[in-house]
């Protein structure tokens, strides 16, 4: 199979038009919709125009080019039994949004979260969603479900008021019932019994403010925790279908390779094996997974690939290979008393999800169902439709629980491969990538070169700032500090490897370069790093996290041992403010992280325990990119495609982590799945300088 084309899925609000997949929506007709749900109350929420545009992604129309409906944000169903089912196109990747979204609905319906079930990421059942990307679930989907549930609450009160002939204001909701002053109660199911109501309503029902939250804003354990720890939770890798076969793709010898010859006859002679060649695609499927290696090895192929660059020359390559049409980088003169310049590098790194890509595909005539771990089920549906030339409404993509993605599961290559094999076999086929395939054929977090020039006056005021990012991306490229003369630009280059979204997008690279350079500038003018940041921080939220982290860390305390270093950073991305302090020890060029203190503010906190877990997990993952992770490649081949050669953080690497969460109930909730990862690398880099006097400007740092 030839290499997939380069990708750059950076789902930033200002870039949806450029990078989002075409917009599609499953909208069953009313008869089919009601048949699907059965008796009960259905609420369809019409969102304000701005929210509709954000959720739609601004793409073209859906099936057959028809205009995509943009007035439905989410739906909620209350059955005659009283069961509450919520539908969302978002998916559960381990970040626990199933719980936080359940809290949103329970809050507005004044009922127990245990009464609510959530259908997620099923293109036949849920509204269109651009994907679980860009930390958008909490700031966009949660408010939609708040509005839907608030609207349902008002409709239930209206039904009860009409039934009892009492004023609506005299009624109350509690734990799935509506009650009146006389003590009478009606369950939600009793109110909706026999009714099949579908209404589009405006979002004018009062949504509960964060200051009044009783369920949201409080700790709630993971909804499906028992199923996960007992093994009852089914991931894509666990799916079994009757008659299912197991697939394996015969991979090219290098990236950008084209297939010259393929002999599949020997593989076909193995009992229970089918072998497929379709253009540059070659694969096998077996009725017994134990024969997959033998079957794949029996296929004889010859590939032709062009000469390609390597990881040793990567940063020179990026600077010397601008993308087609890219203009020259413009530098402006800096006339301040103190002027410095530096260049920072960021390596390609792999997502290394707990569960490699996996998909199960089943054809029934010309209709296709695919179960796959993806962050973008509707995007995968579009890819399948394009690959097989069939209408999107003939395809159902189901994203069940998935063993993490970290931005690496936006695309549907595994689903397409499984569907190709299933079509040839005439049976369902499961395809699970090996770890080596995951390291080689998935896309990577972009590498980058970032050149910075700056100038400051004697009193520590930053007067000039020029920041040019080559290849790694635009996220958080602009400094959050109060700088009057600022140039911060992203420059696209040719991509030596396939690249795409990674947790935090380019914010990790841009914060690493910016916060390292902030320390360099502070040192150049002889100013203490925390004071220098506060001197140039006019945003009160940014100042608050700096003050919170340094106070908890006891910043400014004297060193207690040789080779000890302290480092600090601060920043902002995707609605969240972050400041991280670290303590390290450097011994024989080895860096040991002894302590991490991170302050984070993302508006009103939805679930404190969940937020703490997200921040802690981000810090641990960030240690890998900061210290050890880097993809090595040579002439179209990955040279370290195994965990034995690619070192991710281990339990022994994890230091004590102290998380400080600032709860701003006066502000909307922002997402927290990504921004907390950006802090640890620049803080460690600054601590290395503090310990050794040597500035390291390339990630990984050791």
From the N-terminal CA to the C-terminal CA, the straight-line distance is: 36 Å
Measured by DSSP, the beta-strand proportion falls in: 15-25%
The parts where pLDDT drops under 50 for at least 5 residues are 1-38, 47-73
Q: Report the sheet with the most strands, covering strand number, pairing sense and barrel closure.
A: 7 strands, mixed
Q: Let me know the CATH homologous superfamily of the largest domain.
A: Aldehyde oxidase/xanthine dehydrogenase, molybdopterin binding domain
Tally of distinct domains: 3
Q: Give the strand order of the largest sheet, numbering strands 1, 2, ... along the chain.
A: 11-12-9-18-15-16-17
Q: What characteristic shape results from the CA principal axes?
A: flat
Please give the CATH architecture of the largest domain. Answer: 2-Layer Sandwich
Radius of gyration: 27 Å
Structural class: alpha/beta
Q: What is the number of helices? A: 18
Measured as a percent range, the helix fraction is 25-40%
> Which fold name fills CATH's third level, the topology of the largest domain?
Aldehyde Oxidoreductase, domain 4
Average per-residue pLDDT, rounded, comes to: 89
Label this structure with key terms.
702 residues; alpha/beta; Aldehyde Oxidoreductase, domain 4; 28 strands; flat; disordered N terminus
Could you walk me through the main structural features you see in this protein, from its secondary elements to its overall organization?
- It is a single chain.
- The protein is 28% helix and 24% strand.
- The strands form seven sheets. A seven-stranded mixed sheet has the order 11-12-9-18-15-16-17, sandwiched between helices. The protein has a five-stranded mixed sheet with strand order 4-3-2-1-8, with helices on both faces.
- Helix 11 (377-388) crosses helix 12 and helix 17 (608-627) crosses helix 18.
- The model is unreliable at 1-38 and 47-73 (pLDDT under 50).
- It has 702 residues and is an alpha/beta fold.
- The chain is built from 18 helices and 28 strands.
- The longest helix is centred in the N-terminal third of the chain and has 28 residues, at 137-164.
- The chain is flat and about 75 Å long.
- The chain has three domains: 13-228, Aldehyde Oxidoreductase, domain 4 (2-Layer Sandwich), CATH 3.30.365; 236-306 and 357-432, 2-Layer Sandwich (Aldehyde Oxidoreductase, domain 4), CATH 3.30.365; 518-699, Aldehyde oxidase/xanthine dehydrogenase, molybdopterin binding domain (Aldehyde Oxidoreductase, domain 4), CATH 3.30.365.10.
- The two termini are 36 Å apart.
């Amino acid at each position: 199979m030839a290499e997939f084309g380069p990708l750059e899925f950076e789902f930033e609000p200002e870039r949806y038009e450029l990078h989002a997949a075409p917009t599609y929506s499953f909208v069953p007709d009313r008869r089919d919709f009601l048949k699907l749900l059965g008796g009960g109350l259905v609420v369809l929420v019409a969102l304000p125009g701005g929210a509709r545009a954000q959720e739609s992604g601004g793409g073209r129309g859906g099936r057959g080019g028809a205009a995509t409906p943009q007035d439905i944000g989410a739906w909620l169903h209350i059955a005659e039994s009283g069961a509450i089912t919520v539908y969302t196109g978002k998916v559960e990747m381990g970040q626990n949004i199933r719980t936080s979204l359940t809290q949103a609905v329970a809050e507005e319906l004044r009922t127990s979260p245990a009464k609510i079930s959530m259908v997620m990421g099923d293109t036949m059942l849920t509204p269109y969603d651009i994907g679980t990307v860009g930390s958008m679930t909490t700031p966009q989907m949660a408010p939609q479900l708040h509005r839907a549930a608030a609207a349902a609450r008002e409709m239930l009160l209206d039904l009860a008021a009409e039934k009892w002939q009492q004023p609506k204001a005299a009624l109350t909701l509690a734990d799935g019932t509506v009650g009146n002053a006389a003590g009478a109660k009606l369950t939600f199911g009793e109110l909706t019994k026999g009714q099949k109501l579908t209404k589009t309503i405006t979002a004018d029902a009062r949504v509960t403010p964060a200051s009044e939250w009783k369920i949201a804003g409080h700790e709630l354990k993971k909804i499906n925790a028992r199923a996960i720890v007992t093994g009852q939770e089914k991931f894509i890798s666990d799916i079994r279908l009757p008659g299912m076969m197991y697939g394996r793709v015969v991979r090219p010898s290098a990236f950008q390779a084209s297939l010259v010859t393929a002999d599949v006859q020997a593989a076909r002679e193995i009992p229970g094996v089918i072998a497929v060649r379709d253009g540059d695609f070659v694969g096998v499927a077996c009725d017994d997974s134990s024969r997959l290696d033998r079957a794949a090895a029996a296929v004889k192929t010859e590939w032709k690939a062009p000469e390609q660059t390597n990881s040793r020359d990567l940063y020179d390559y990026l600077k010397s290979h601008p993308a087609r049409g890219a203009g020259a980088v413009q530098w402006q003169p800096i006339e301040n008393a103190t002027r410095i310049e530096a260049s920072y590098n960021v390596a390609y790194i792999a997502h290394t999800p707990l569960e490699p890509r996996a998909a199960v595909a089943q054809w029934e005539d010309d209709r296709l169902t695919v179960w796959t771990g993806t962050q973008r089920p509707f995007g995968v549906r579009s890819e399948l439709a394009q690959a097989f030339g069939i209408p999107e409404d003939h395809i159902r993509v189901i994203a069940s629980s998935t063993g993490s993605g970290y931005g690496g599961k936006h695309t549907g290559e595994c689903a397409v491969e499984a569907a190709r094999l299933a079509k040839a076999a005439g049976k369902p086929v499961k395809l699970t990538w090996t770890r080596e395939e995951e390291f080689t054929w998935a896309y990577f977090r972009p590498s980058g070169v970032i050149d910075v020039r700056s100038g400051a006056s004697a009193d520590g005021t930053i007067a000039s700032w020029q920041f040019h990012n080559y290849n790694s991306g635009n996220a958080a490229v602009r400094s959050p500090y109060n700088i009057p003369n600022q140039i911060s630009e992203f420059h696209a280059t040719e991509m030596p490897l396939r690249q795409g979204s990674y947790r935090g997008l380019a914010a990790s690279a841009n914060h690493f370069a910016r916060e390292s350079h902030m320390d360099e500038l502070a040192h150049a003018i002889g100013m203490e790093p925390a004071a220098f940041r506060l001197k140039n921080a006019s945003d009160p939220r940014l100042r608050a996290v700096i003050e919170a982290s340094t106070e908890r860390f006891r910043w400014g305390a004297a060193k207690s041992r040789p080779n000890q270093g302290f480092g600090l950073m601060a920043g902002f991305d995707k609605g969240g403010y972050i400041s991280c302090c670290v303590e390290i020890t450097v011994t024989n060029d080895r860096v040991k992280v002894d302590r991490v203190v991170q302050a984070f503010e993302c508006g009103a906190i939805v679930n404190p325990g969940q937020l703490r877990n997200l921040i802690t997990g981000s810090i641990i993952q960030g240690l890998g990119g900061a210290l050890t992770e880097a993809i090595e490649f040579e002439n179209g081949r990955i040279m370290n495609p195994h965990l034995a050669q690619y070192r991710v953080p281990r339990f022994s690497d994890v230091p004590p982590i102290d998380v400080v969460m600032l709860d701003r109930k006066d502000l909307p909730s922002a997402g927290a799945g990504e921004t907390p990862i950006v802090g640890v690398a620049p803080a460690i880099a600054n601590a290395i300088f503090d310990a050794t006097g040597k500035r390291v400007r390339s990630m990984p740092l050791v």
